Amino acid sequence: MAYRDLRHFLEVLESRNELKRIKEPISPYLEVTEIADRVMKSGGPALFFENLVGPPHRLGTPHHASAVMNQPSIHREGAWWTSDPNASVKFDYPVAINTMGSEKRMSLALSCEDFEEHAARLRKLLQAPGNVPKGIGEKLKFALEMGGEVKTVGPKEVSAAPCQEITWMGDDIDLTKFPILTCWPEDAGPYVTLPLVFTHDPLTGKRNVGMYRVLLYDKKTCGMHWQMHKTGQRQMEDAAEVGKRRFEVAVVLGGDPVYNFCAIAPLPPGIDEMVFAGFLRKENVKTVKCKTVDVWVPADAEIVIEGYVDPAERRLEGPFGDHTGYYSLAGDFPVLHVTAVTMRQKPIWPATIVGIPPMEDGWMGKAVERIFMPMIQLTVPEIVDMNLPVDACFHNVAFVSIKKKYPGHAYKVMNAIWGLGQLAFTKMVFVFDEDCNVQDIGEVLFRLGANCDPMRDVLHSRGPVDQLDHAAVSEGFGGKIGFDCTHKWPGENGYNRDYPKLIKMAPDVVKRIDGIWSKLGL
Asked: What is the CATH number of domain 6-350?
C-alpha cells in the first residue's frame, strides 16, 4: 500500500498504537531531542509534538569553530539563541519524529510488514531470465523497467499539488517560523534534519535526491552540508565548471516516508531515486514543478524550500552533534539562498535526531543493509550474509560470512567490499565462514577470538573514509583493516597444522531430546 502522504502514514502508525501524541509545551531547542533520544534508545513509539513553544531561533553563526567548541555552556546563558533568554515563541506547526525508529515502523514506512520483502522482490528481479546487461547499475535499471510488478515505475508529472497550497516569496519568506530543531547544546544552530535535497545534474539533467543536513542562518539563508563524496557536491562542482552561478535546489520535507529511504539508499549511478521509490511503493510518484526553480518534487510533500547555491560561495557550517556520536567540526560549506517556500495548509514538520547510537537512523541503515543485499551478492556472490552493526555507525565495521572456496578467499572479499559503492567507507571488515551467524554478536566475537591470529590473519589497506570520521589521518582519507576469521586451510598463510573441528552434538541426539523436551519441565 502506497501512502498518500506523511499524514496518512502517521494515521496508520496511530491506528497500530505506534505513535504517541505529546500535548505538553515542548521547546524545539534541545527539549525535543532529550525526549526523542530517551524514547529511541528504549525502543519507544513515534512521537507527534503538537505544542512547540520555545525561544526564538537565533540568527547568524559564529565566525570560527573555536568560538563554539570552547564555549563552556551555550545552553546555560542562551546567549547564542536569543538576546533575551526569557523570550518565548509559539510555533504553529507540529513535529513528527522517530516515525521509522523500529523494525516494525521502518517496514511500515516502506509499505510492507517486513522490509525483507523488498529484498526478495529485488533478488527476484535481478535474477530474472533475460536480465542481461553488464554492470550492477544497468542490471538494476533493466530490472526496474522490465519488472512485472510495476508496469511503469517512473514518476508522473502533475500541474497542481497539495505541497503548493501556500506559497511564500520575497519578504514573506521566513524559515524561522518553522520549529527547526537545535538538537545538541554545542550545535551551531537549528538544523533541518530530515531533508530530501533534490537537484539535477547540470550535464545530463538526471535527478538526484540526497539527505544532507541544512543549517538555518537566517530567514532565507541556510548552510548546505554537501560532503566531498556526495552526489550533490559533485553536481555543484560540475555546475561551476560549465559556468553556472545558480545551481538550483529544492529541499523537500514530508511526503510518503519511502522517499526518506530512497534518499539514503546506495543506488548505482543512473538510477533515479523517484523511480526506485515507485518500485518500493508499487505506485508512481506524482511530481510537480517548483515555483521558482526548474526542479520537480513530490506532490504529496508537506513543505518545499526552493533556492539555489552559488558554487563559488562558502560559509562556516557546524559544529553539529552527528551520527558518529561526536560533534562534527565546523567547516566551510555551500550556502543555500531561498527563493520560495511552498507548503500544505497546516503542514507537519518531519524531523529526526542523530547522536550516540542507537538512534532512529539505525533502523533506516538496517533496512538499507537488508534490501541491498541482493545487489551486493550480485557483485560478490560468495557473500552469504553481512551485518553492519548500528553501534559502529554502519560504515565503521562489517561482519561478513562467505562460502570459502580457496586459500586467501577472505582477502578477496575484503578488497571487493572496499571497492563497492558506499561500502568503500568501511574501516574494519571481519570475514567468517558461512555457518557463522553474523547477526549474532556473541557468535561473531566467539569466532573472531577462536580463528583470527593478529600476526597472520590481518590485512592493512587505505582509502576513502566518511568525511565525518574524526579519527582518520586526514579528512575523508584513512586506514582500513580486514580480519580473516575463517577456519584456516592447509598451507593458508603458512598454517601447517591440522585445524580443529567446531564442537557440535550428534544430530540423532539433538532429534531425540527435541522430541522429549516438553516432558522435562525445563
From this structure: 2.30.110.10
